[in-house]
Design brief:
This protein has nine helices and no strands. With about 220 residues, it is mostly helical. The C terminus is likely disordered.
Amino acid sequence: MEFPGPLRADARQNRQRVLDAARELFADRGLDVPIAAVARRAGVGVATLYRRFPTRDSLVTAVFSDQLEACSAVIDTALAAPDPWRGFCSVVEKVGTMQATDRGFTAAFLTAFPDAVDFERTRVRAERGFVEVVRRAKESGSLRPDFALTDLPLLLMANNGITAGSPEVARAASRRLVALLLDAFRADRAAPPVALPPPAPLDLMDVHRPQRPYGTSARAGA
């Protein structure tokens, strides 16, 4: 957790710079970015960063709290949707896009942070909400009955394997992959197929491309 107490204007600015830098680096490289790299990107000293965020967990939860709330809101919207299948699809599509464009988000979502009470509460609520989304979709007859909750991590593992040269290409590839998988999850395979999103500009060489941060060459010194 962060140290309590009101912040001076300069301290608030430093805190925001740290959050912005961490958000960008976590999105590009995942959660294992060195704290020194975050401080350097933010233009502050490591000691300044640790005064506001004494642990990596406290920094991670501060960075991803808004996205976790957004993810939870997506699930709440799906639960309120009159069409359970459309609600299920919306959750998978939006979470897939968030993952494809932010390499740190899924890791943060799937990590337990026992000291971050609010973060944990929101995460658990989102997980329970997804269980209900799945139940409603199955009961409506639209989601195949043998869909297992473990199929979501499987989908995310496949989605996480996307390598692309830009967030735009990653987003396009994720949309198409998720659409293909959702089509496989449908209970009624005799229904007219849903049109797939446009193909992403990928080739077989992309399968072996190292997962470097988007725009690495422009930020080599980060």
